[in-house]
């Protein structure tokens, strides 16, 4: 450490400048601009020497916006060329610039952490953020079973392999009173301003371990816990080595602030992973259940159809036939729900297969309209179809039949006893199908959500269904290279429109 005191020009007041450059390879006339921590205003400008303003550069600056000018100001102050009031102003400005830079760093860090919900990507991002501005080394350790696991490691000059090898050969003891074992065990952050030979010896388990630790040329370190739901789930270690920088108390505060954001990102990634696992288990159950239900349902339908045929041959059997028909309708409805569940699991697994062929779409739509004519009339909603005479398309006939069936089923259910229009329009390269009802309509906040799985725009107390029809419809349309949208307002009905290329369809699964 070197000290220099000089009288300021034009003033009897002296400026006492302390340059702490010992061990940094600098002489007393040089301020090393290699430190990671900007001094606080109190540290920069203090009155520790009676009657003499003091400026302390104990850890020269990570990056003042105007670093060279600031260093020159320090030299000028020491040589009596700068007014102390101006020096204080420059010091205060530098401190403000430092806070702005830290705020920008935190904003950038939050943005980087929000880019992925993959657990390992998040863990890597946490360690990578600190390099090179905040550390030469950055490591993240997490709890695993009864011990610790190195989840991510980065070095400013790519020397990660050496540390990984050392930690593999010499893992730190879980009861070590320093570093990440101590931080994760106690939940308290740790600041090591300077690594001494004694400290390295207390960490090393033998002479070879000590030799490897010395090779890392560690100078200073902070280690902070990542606290999630009141528990220390991980520890972030930041260390200075080759850059000869040193951490101070303010760095520890900053590291804790960064750790708080990292902990939130880590928890979000873990929750997302757990949710994906839960969804996977649900889809697997639905797939197995759907397959298992289809066989007995098919058997029940065949038996009921046989009973219906026998009952029709008997005299005075109208009541029996009516009851069998009602049971058949309920079995058919149950079979439809099972099919939808199976489709959802196939779509989720990317196994929605399309059997592409060229066919006339007009008779397909007309047949579906005829199929719904009776239940539509029973609901007070007569069906009207508007179409060209011929519309040749390429697509999966059964899947497009499913699309029109789902849209018409919804129109009849929510049509409020008013007419329903089915319109086909041909184009040069695309065709359009619109199913319009004049019923209860859909609120704007549901216009996109209704195309998601298990989403509904109405109460389940008044309308049945699982909220899967429109989701399956959207995925089938998209698999054909098309789009679907809805135009609706409460009380004004709804118009569902699909646009498909004339040569639609993908041969593989979607």
Question: What would your notes on this structure say?
Answer:
By secondary structure, this protein is α+β, with helices and mostly antiparallel strands. It is 46% helix and 20% strand. It contains 13 helices and 16 strands. The strands form four sheets. It has a five-stranded antiparallel sheet with strand order 6-5-9-8-7, with helices on both faces. A five-stranded mixed sheet has the order 11-13-14-16-15, with helices on one face. A hairpin with a 2-residue loop joins strand 5 and strand 6. Helix 2 (67-78) packs antiparallel against helix 3 (84-113), helix 3 packs parallel to helix 9 (249-313) and helix 9 runs antiparallel to helix 10 (318-348). Mean pLDDT is 77; it is low at 1-67 and 505-510.
Record keyword descriptors for this entry.
alpha+beta; 5-stranded antiparallel beta sheet; disordered C terminus
State the secondary-structure class: alpha+beta
Number of strands: 16
Q: Tell me the strand order in the biggest sheet.
A: 6-5-9-8-7
Shape: elongated
Separation of the first and last Cα atoms: 69 Å
How much beta, percentage-wise?
15-25%
Radius of gyration: 37 Å
- Kindly report the average pLDDT value: 77
Give the H and E element order.
EEHEEHHHEEHHEHHEEHHEHEEHEEHEE
* Helix count from the secondary structure assignment: 13
Indicate the low-confidence ranges by residue numbers: 1-67, 505-510
Helical residue percent band: 40-55%
Major β-sheet annotation: 5 strands, antiparallel
């Amino acid at each position: 450490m070197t000290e220099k005191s000089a009288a300021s020009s034009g003033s009897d007041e002296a400026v006492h400048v302390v340059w702490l450059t010992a061990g940094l390879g600098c002489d007393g006339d040089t301020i090393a601009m290699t430190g990671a921590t900007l001094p606080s205003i109190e540290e920069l400008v203090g009155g520790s020497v009676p009657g003499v303003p003091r400026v302390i550069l104990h850890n020269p600056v990570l990056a003042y916006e105007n670093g060279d000018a600031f260093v020159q100001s320090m030299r000028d102050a020491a040589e009596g060329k700068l007014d102390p009031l101006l020096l204080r102003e420059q010091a205060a400005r530098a401190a403000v610039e430092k806070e702005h830079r830290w705020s920008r760093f935190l904003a950038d860090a939050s943005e980087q952490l929000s880019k992925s919900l993959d657990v390992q990507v998040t863990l890597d991002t946490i360690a990578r953020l600190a390099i090179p501005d905040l550390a030469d080394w950055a490591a993240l350790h997490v709890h695993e079973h009864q011990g610790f696991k190195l989840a991510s490691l980065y070095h400013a000059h790519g020397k990660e392999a050496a540390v990984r090898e050392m930690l593999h050969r010499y893992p730190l003891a879980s009861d070590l009173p320093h570093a990440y074992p101590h931080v994760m065990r106690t939940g308290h952050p740790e600041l090591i301003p300077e690594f001494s030979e004694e400290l390295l010896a207390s960490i090393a388990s033998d002479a070879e371990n000590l030799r490897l630790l010395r090779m890392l040329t560690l100078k200073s370190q902070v280690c902070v816990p990542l606290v999630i739901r009141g528990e220390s789930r991980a520890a972030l270690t930041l260390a200075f080595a080759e850059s000869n920088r040193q951490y101070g108390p303010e760095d520890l505060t900053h590291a804790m602030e960064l750790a708080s954001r990292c902990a939130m990102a880590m928890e979000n990634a873990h929750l997302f992973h757990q949710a994906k696992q839960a969804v996977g288990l649900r889809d697997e159950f639905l797939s197995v259940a759907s397959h298992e239900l289809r066989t007995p349902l098919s058997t029940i339908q065949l038996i009921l159809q046989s009973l219906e045929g026998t009952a029709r041959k008997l005299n005075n059997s109208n009541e029996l036939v009516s009851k069998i028909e009602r049971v058949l309708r309920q079995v058919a409805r149950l079979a439809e729900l099972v099919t939808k569940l199976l489709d959802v699991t196939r779509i989720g697994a990317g196994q929605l297969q399309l059997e592409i062929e060229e066919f006339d779409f007009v008779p397909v739509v007309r047949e579906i309209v005829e199929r719904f004519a009776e239940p539509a009339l029973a609901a007070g909603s007569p069906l009207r179809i508007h179409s060209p005479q011929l519309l040749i398309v390429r697509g999966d006939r059964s899947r497009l039949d499913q699309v029109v069936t789902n849209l018409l089923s919804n129109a009849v259910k929510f049509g409020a006893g008013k007419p329903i229009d089915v319109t086909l329009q041909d184009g040069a390269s695309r065709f359009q199908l619109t199913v319009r009802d004049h019923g209860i309509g859909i609120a704007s906040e549901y216009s996109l959500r209704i195309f998601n799985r298990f989403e509904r725009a109405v109460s389940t107390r008044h309308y049945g269904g699982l909220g899967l029809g429109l989701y399956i419809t959207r995925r089938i349309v998209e698999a054909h290279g098309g789009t679907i949208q809805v135009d609706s307002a409460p009380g004004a009905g709804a118009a569902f429109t699909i646009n498909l290329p004339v040569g639609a369809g993908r041969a593989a699964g979607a």
